[in-house]
Design brief:
- By secondary structure, the protein is an alpha/beta fold.
- It is 47% helix and 14% strand.
- It is built from 32 helices and 22 strands.
- The strands form 5 sheets. Strands 11, 12, 13, 14, 15, 16 and 17 form a 7-stranded mixed β-sheet that branches.
- It is globular and about 80 Å long.
- The structure holds a DNA duplex.
DNA sequence: AATCGGAAGGTTTTT
DNA sequence: CCTTCCGATT
């Protein structure tokens, strides 16, 4: 043990301390923002271990991988690596996925079942809708997917769904009575593919524990001590699983804050907090109300905002910290200007107060808003990192390669099969695939069986096509054989090459192709790291190299935010949802406009509006020192710009805490200078050429616009003119100019300050 | 069977 | 605006 127990307990305040050492029965901790919630959880784990509890008996559940990793790190800090490693800490989904790998056979799943992410399951739903010849405008994929997901997370099976009169009449009145059949067929197809979607991980865990008392009992014995983070975000399925696991020992500790419940849209149910009382009548309640994170101004502003919500648990968050600055505001003419003003403000603060980039974050409601901010930061040469957005793992080329891996591990994975059977092109076209699909349905077998032996199933194809299918199967089988002896990295490289995937992308010879190859290389590098890290850890042991199977077990549950290379000094950009649990000295919340934040979909019902307000509350309480709220008067939406109204949330901040823009007198001549000149930039609206995304924003800033070292003879790329060669460089500092010869337009004289040149070589 | 172009549709939020 | 899907063309 690294520290003496009493030493680390001294670092807690009274309430935190009591919550940590309370050792008798169920515990609920209601923790205001910034009050040391994670601290209580980690210290509690450390405390249990110090009392001699076996780490193997502790289960700690979080919602994001990031939160899980942070918790693990902090526990390791407290008590050292050895014991902490054996505590089960992870997201609900990853922990349950692990359990299902072991116990899934009881439900008829092999241990190598595939996890479908939401893209995969939407593809499958799309296929089913078109197979059923339904109007795919009426039966929109996302609507159906949502409906099914809601059902599953409430543990409503396909039969329950079809037999529930309320559900049926709801579907009938929305003109979609056949959702029940789509749901049934969807589950059947997942089964046939030995696949589970995200909701199945919860649904099946519940089925396992309710249908197999022996299995339940053994996990109850294993997980004697259960801790749950962000309890307010649990959905019905998660709630019941925890309840079952805890039923024997009732040594359960849940931590949450009803004011930060922001996942209602995916079935999270605040009443789980309220029900805790009735589930565990002898529970102890602790309230953490002292905020250690933020200034008085921020705490008071957030408190005031949340009072506009009717439904909430009473608590008084307060702080001893200094008052700090007033909340700042930015009012911009357009979303582009908003980006510019935010970037300028970051730049100024940085200079005036000697701050670093990583002290800043820009938060927004929707991922799409990142673009104008990105552009502005890039122009100001401020490095940034985007969390979330289009996930690295959802890029086409990555999905394709991963699909090869998936098929090697599980040949029943039909989504993977369909994705790659003709990628790169192998002459297996639509007609053939259609025949295979039909035969699979007809015989009730998996598509892999059909293509392995088309003649057995009477599939009518010519010998040329037969040979092509045979070659495909032979290739996959050879990968399967190789996979038995190679580690994850070796087999991955082998597949990337032998499948022809890398070659076909290289042959494209386009900038997109190059960036796709880079992405694949990035994935392979990550796999190399994964493989080698495992070797390091197992020092002494006989070659415990990580296998492809092990890699693939994790990958479906990973998101971009999990690539933690953020030791760099960068401004963070993310959605408010993604920011939960994090803190930053200086926070910008952008796009505070009606219909955007609060979102247009949520302003019609009280509960949804209140969730938006909690979201705003979460955003405000991320900040330690300053908050700046910004909105734009016009914003691009679907190609043309629309006028917007300031968000109601702006008005809900107490006047004494915010620095509102002074109302401008009507004086046409004076008003002109900044605003009109900005509007005259109209042409800029059209030039929104998005740079190809680099992986998680790495090097998005530094080398793309750092033209300080530009030299004669270099190859460069310009957003509009394409590639060119530097003919001459002259001038210094801000007036540095270059003459560049572009293939498209010939010689151009460019002021480097403005032209965003990218150095190629 | 592959490729290209036009049309249509889509923005909440995440595991 | 951007991505994805479908059909027509080669």
């Amino acid at each position: 043990m690294k520290n003496n127990v009493n030493d680390f307990l001294k670092q807690l305040n009274k309430e935190q301390h009591d919550a940590v050492v309370h050792n008798d029965g169920p515990v609920m901790v209601i923790a205001g923002a910034g009050s040391g919630k994670t601290r209580v959880l980690t210290y509690r784990i450390a405390y249990l271990l110090s009392k001699g509890v076996d780490p193997f008996n502790i289960l700690a559940l979080t919602f994001t991988n990031k939160a899980a990793r942070e918790m693990k790190d902090r526990v390791i800090n407290l008590i050292g690596d050895g014991e902490a490693r054996n505590v089960w800490m992870g997201t609900f989904h990853s922990v349950f996925a692990k359990i299902l790998r072991i116990e899934g056979h009881l439900l008829g799943y092999p241990s190598n079942y595939t996890i479908y992410d939401s893209t995969d399951s939407k593809r499958l739903i799309r296929n089913i809708i078109s197979d059923m010849n339904l109007d795919n405008k009426l039966y929109s994929r996302s609507f159906v997917a949502n409906r099914i997901s809601m059902a599953k997370s409430s543990l409503i099976s396909t039969t329950d769904y079809a037999n529930d009169p309320d559900i049926q009449s709801a579907d009938e009145s929305s003109q979609k009575p056949l959702i029940k059949d789509i749901y049934t067929s969807y589950q059947a197809r997942l089964r046939r593919a030995d696949a589970m979607d995200f909701d199945d991980l919860l649904f099946n865990t519940y089925m396992l524990f309710s249908g197999f008392p022996k299995a339940l009992y053994s996990y109850q014995q294993k997980f004697k001590y259960i801790l749950v983070d962000e309890y307010q975000d649990t959905n019905h399925a998660q709630y019941l699983i925890i309840k079952k696991l805890a039923a024997n020992n009732e040594f359960i500790c849940v931590v949450g804050d009803d004011a930060q419940s922001i996942y209602g849209f995916r079935g999270a149910n605040i009443s789980n907090i309220l029900n805790f009382k009735s589930d565990y009548p002898d529970f102890s309640l602790f309230k953490l109300e002292q905020n250690y994170r933020s200034t008085k101004t921020i705490v008071n502003a957030a408190n005031k905002v949340i009072t506009y919500n009717k439904d909430q648990i009473k608590k008084t968050v307060w702080t001893d910290n200094h008052s700090g600055d007033l909340i700042g505001t930015i009012k911009a003419k357009s979303d582009n200007e908003e980006g510019r003003l935010v970037a300028e403000s970051i730049f100024e603060k940085k200079m005036n107060k000697q701050l670093t980039n990583n002290m800043f974050t820009v938060l927004y409601r929707t991922n799409a808003q990142s673009r104008s901010i990105e552009e502005a930061l890039r122009q100001k040469n401020i490095p940034y990192r985007i969390y979330g957005g289009l996930s690295f793992y959802s890029r086409k080329e990555i999905k394709d390669l991963l699909s090869y891996f998936r098929l090697v591990i599980n040949q029943n994975d039909e989504d993977a099969l369909l994705r790659i059977i003709n990628v790169p092109p192998k002459g297996i076209g639509k007609t053939t695939i259609e025949k295979v699909v039909v035969a699979a349905d007809l015989h009730g077998v998996n598509m892999w069986e059909i293509i392995s032996n088309p003649l057995n199933f009477g599939v009518d194809i010519n010998s040329g096509t037969q040979a092509k299918l045979r070659n495909f199967c032979i290739m996959i089988r050879s990968f399967i054989v190789e996979n038995k002896t190679k580690d994850a990295f070796e087999i991955a490289v082998h597949i990337a090459n032998s499948s022809g995937l890398l070659k076909s992308l290289r042959d494209e010879d386009t900038p997109e192709g190059v960036s796709r190859v880079e992405n694949i290389e990035e994935l392979l590098n990550g796999m190399k790291e994964f493989t080698e890290k495992a070797i390091e850890k197992s020092d002494g042991d006989l070659s415990i190299k990580k296998t492809l199977n092990e890699f693939m077990e994790d990958v479906a549950l990973l998101t971009d935010a999990d690539n933690d290379d953020d030791d760099k000094d960068k401004v963070s950009l993310m959605t408010i949802h993604a920011s939960k649990g994090l803190e930053f000295p200086h926070v910008f919340i952008v796009g505070l406009e009606e219909n955007l934040f609060p979102s247009i979909q949520s302003i019609s019902t009280r509960s949804e509006l209140e969730e938006e307000r909690r979201l705003f509350y979460v955003a405000l309480t991320r900040a330690m020192e300053t908050v700046t709220l910004s909105h734009a008067e016009t914003r691009y939406r679907w190609g043309n710009f629309t006028f917007t109204e300031p968000s109601r949330f702006l008005d809900e901040i107490d006047d004494s805490l915010i620095d509102r823009p002074k109302p401008v007198m009507f004086n046409t001549s004076q008003k002109s200078s900044p605003s009109i000149s900005n509007l005259s930039n109209h042409g800029n609206f059209k030039k929104r050429n998005l740079k190809p995304l680099t992986i998680s924003g790495v090097n998005s800033s530094a080398d793309s616009s750092n033209t300080n070292n530009l030299q004669e003879g270099m190859s460069v790329e310009h957003a509009n003119f394409g590639r060119g060669k530097v003919v001459a460089v002259e001038g210094n500092g801000p007036n540095k100019k270059a003459t560049v010869f572009f293939d498209s337009v010939g010689n151009k004289n460019l002021l480097l300050r403005f032209a965003k040149l990218k150095i190629i070589s």
